[in-house]
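This entry is retained here.
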Amino acid sequence: MVPGGRGTRTGQHWETVIKPVLEIHYPGRFALQVPVGQQLFGGIYKADALIRDPSGDVIISAKWQQVRGTAEQKILYDIASLLKIIREANGRYRKAYIVLGGIGFSNNARNFLLEQGHKDLFTNGHLVEVITIDEFLAHANTGNL
C-alpha cells in the first residue's frame, strides 16, 4: 500500500466501527461528517463524528494509519486546529478526541500521542485527548465521552 494513499483514509472504514457504538449509547445525539469550524490554515474542519451534549458538544476525529507515512506528523496540526475551533466556539464544544487506529504509527509517535505529550506544547491541550480505538469504544460503552 502506498503511503498517503489508501493506508491513511478514515471515512467509511471508521464509520462502520464508530457509528454502531454511537447509535447504541448516544441515540439521536450524534452526527457524522459535520463541519465544526475553521482549520488552523483556514479550511473547513469536518469532524468524523459530533456528539451533542447539553454541557458542550464533543468532536471526534478518527485517524487511521495502515502503513508507515506522514499521517502521524499531521496529528499535531489536527490538535492545534481542534484547539482553535474549541476556543473560537464560545463554549459550544467542551472536548475533542482524536482516535488512533491501524498499525502504521511509529512507536515513538504512538507513545507521544497516547501519553498526551501535546499537553505540554499547547495551551489548553487537555481539551483534546488522543486515544486508541479500544479506549474510544470503552468510553462510548460507558457513556463517558
Remarks:
- Residues 28 and 117 are 34 Å apart (CA to CA).
- The two ends are 33 Å apart (CA to CA).
- Strands lie at 30-38, 44-51, 57-64, 93-101, 128-132.
